[in-house]
Amino acid sequence: MLERIRKYCRENSILSYGDKIVIACSGGADSLTLVDVLLKLKEEYALTLVVAHLDHMFRGDASAADAKFVQEFCLAKGIPCHMQQTDVNVFAALHGLGSEEAARIVRYQFLRKVASDLGGAKIATGHHKDDQAETILLHLLRGAGSAGISGIRPINHDIIRPLLSVTRKEIDLYCEQNHFLPRIDQTNFEDCYTRNRIRLSLLPKLKEEFNPSITDALCKTAQLVGDEHDYVVESAKLHIKKLLQKSQKNSVIEKKDFLRLHIALKREVIRQIIIMKQGDLKGVTFQHIEKMIEIAEFGQVGAVFILPSEIMMKVSYNTLVFCLDEGDHTSQEMNQFSEIVLDETMRNDFFNITITAQLLEEYPQETGEYSAVFDAEKIYLPLFVRARENGDRFKPLGMKGSKKLKEYFIDQKIERSDRGKIPLICDQQGILWVVGHRLSEVGKVTASTKKFLQVIISGRK
């Protein structure tokens, strides 16, 4: 196994001579194996190694015991260990985040702080082939493009994954052979998390009934799609160099040249420009990109689209201008999308609301004006929240046929100035809920409903 990892690191240029590396170590089998493997490669690459462990304080005494175990393991191996304790539940509550997302943010903040203190080190994580397979399935179920289907990459900026060529079973065997006694996180066996259900139920079923080598098949797909995605990204960057006009603060591209591009390149050109402006794609969904392309193609001069990060795309006579929002727009122009991820709590700053969506086996006990329940088998995921658009129609619950949203607002005597401030919960086919006002016939719960999807809005006034 060590030789396979060494070969994988060499083929993917994961390690370089003289690297400084911060090893993320939870105390589980994968992270103990990662520490041991990198120690065995230390002399070959002249590596400077340190371990970093974050106690999330999720599991009380068990979390504290994990931290002590990692500290003692590092002491026995003679490797420096950096520790930090953070109450992630408190952090999540303060920032309106789900526990998983909050844990990820806090963990990488800590790891990057250690890496910075070490003088700009790489961060090594213990992701392996089974993690890769789970990630690809997770992204497929949520609806993903090539970036999502390419899964976990061996190198992602400052993060490296040396173990992506080996399986969980091989890692467990490695620990057994080296007499390691990894810590077991019992939350990995709880079925309240989507990833856990994929690991514990879906993947075993796929292996048993469809393909015993499904993990290898998914990882191969990730490699192929990832290579093709990398090619599209590099091609988009080359096109941006040709399209981009010089400007002190704005990114300006020729509209007619942009519209000649293949749709895959249009999407990636917009993504790369957003990355240039805000540093990442956080908060940017597929619906955002598609809407921006639609406006670029069919929007009138002066049409704008504003992302949650307040980056704005504005249609000019011959160009598309990407800049920071200047704030002088109507709510109709500021129509924004946010994709809703199941089993996670998300914040939408445009509407100043927090949204939680979860699948349930029974009709929920808690309902109210800002809680809606749908038949999960009658809707088309993913869900998203947006403001109204010209021409919107929906099927008000209890009515036959559809109705223009504008007419519904008039009938309800909703002031014109307030209409753009009302969130609309939609699936891929249309409006499901005019929040605080009316549900749609689409996705309505009946006596035959077996799976329920509840959406809760909080913070709405």
Automatic annotation (TrEMBL):
<feature type="binding site">
    <location>
        <begin position="26"/>
        <end position="31"/>
    </location>
    <ligand>
        <name>ATP</name>
    </ligand>
</feature>
<keyword id="KW-0819">tRNA processing</keyword>
<dbReference type="Pfam" id="PF11734">
    <property type="entry name" value="TilS_C"/>
</dbReference>
<dbReference type="InterPro" id="IPR014729">
    <property type="entry name" value="Rossmann-like_a/b/a_fold"/>
</dbReference>
<feature type="domain" description="Lysidine-tRNA(Ile) synthetase C-terminal">
    <location>
        <begin position="383"/>
        <end position="455"/>
    </location>
</feature>
<keyword id="KW-0436">Ligase</keyword>
<protein>
    <recommendedName>
        <fullName>tRNA(Ile)-lysidine synthase</fullName>
        <ecNumber>6.3.4.19</ecNumber>
    </recommendedName>
</protein>
<keyword id="KW-0547">Nucleotide-binding</keyword>
<dbReference type="InterPro" id="IPR012796">
    <property type="entry name" value="Lysidine-tRNA-synth_C"/>
</dbReference>
<dbReference type="InterPro" id="IPR011063">
    <property type="entry name" value="TilS/TtcA_N"/>
</dbReference>
<dbReference type="GO" id="GO:0006400">
    <property type="term" value="P:tRNA modification"/>
</dbReference>
<dbReference type="GO" id="GO:0005737">
    <property type="term" value="C:cytoplasm"/>
</dbReference>
<comment type="similarity">
    <text>Belongs to the tRNA(Ile)-lysidine synthase family.</text>
</comment>
<comment type="function">
    <text>Ligates lysine onto the cytidine present at position 34 of the AUA codon-specific tRNA(Ile) that contains the anticodon CAU, in an ATP-dependent manner. Cytidine is converted to lysidine, thus changing the amino acid specificity of the tRNA from methionine to isoleucine.</text>
</comment>
<keyword id="KW-0963">Cytoplasm</keyword>
<dbReference type="InterPro" id="IPR012094">
    <property type="entry name" value="tRNA_Ile_lys_synt"/>
</dbReference>
<dbReference type="Pfam" id="PF01171">
    <property type="entry name" value="ATP_bind_3"/>
</dbReference>
<dbReference type="InterPro" id="IPR012795">
    <property type="entry name" value="tRNA_Ile_lys_synt_N"/>
</dbReference>
<keyword id="KW-0067">ATP-binding</keyword>
<dbReference type="GO" id="GO:0032267">
    <property type="term" value="F:tRNA(Ile)-lysidine synthase activity"/>
</dbReference>
<dbReference type="GO" id="GO:0005524">
    <property type="term" value="F:ATP binding"/>
</dbReference>
<dbReference type="InterPro" id="IPR020825">
    <property type="entry name" value="Phe-tRNA_synthase-like_B3/B4"/>
</dbReference>
